[in-house]
Amino acid sequence: MTRRSLFSLSTSSSTNHIITPNEIYNGFRALGFSILFSLGGLLIPLFFSYPTTLGHSWLPDPLFRIYASSIHKAKHGSDTGIYDSDGHLRVQLFDEMFEKMDSSVADQGSGLGDDGKTRDGSLGVGDLVRLHARNRVAADPAGWSFAAMEWWTTWLLLQRDGRVWKEDLRAMYDGTLFWKIRDERLVKQEGWTQGYGWRDWAGTMWNNGTWKTWEVGSKRKVGGRSEL
Prior knowledge:
Layout: H1 3-10, E1 18-19, H2 21-30, H3 35-40, H4 43-53, E2 66-67, H5 91-101, E3 111-112, E4 118-119, E5 122-124, H6 125-135, H7 141-158, E6 163-165, H8 166-174, H9 176-187, H10 198-208
Antiparallel strand pairs: 1-2, 3-4, 5-6
């Protein structure tokens, strides 16, 4: 998950464009993540508060707040490059990422891959692993780690039939998806029905001996929906 787009949800209560660790925690909870996972999300201000503070002061923020106006300074290495150094979305690179990394083959899909075959516009776990490996640059263990955590979180939140779909990922990059998820969880009885939680894993492992819920036709139950 991209930090810049997640902050679009966190700033719903912020008028000064300063995001506190508490708002980041609440943002994760609003998306349906468990308490433990949301606490893990506090690594974001721990690692990225100071880079954004540099747009305003050389001194670190003692409260680990994040300054949204300089969020582009928190851009790490070994990423997709879909955001440029100023924090703008590169739509062409986003489309090219799916053309190169989407390994699916469909009768009718959203476009052609490099091999001329029609794709369905999605990335599976294997595709995301290959994408992460392709983007790794030398001597950048911090960037490798951050990128791995972001893609892992993205898959947990967005997966449908085991894959991350292009339209969902695009909405995540521009930030609109988070408002949609929050609103669906608040308004609709079934809530947000995509994603993968610990109950999904435990249930399918216990009943079917696999963690792949989409292969056994398991359907998520909301109300008592699995937290991520």
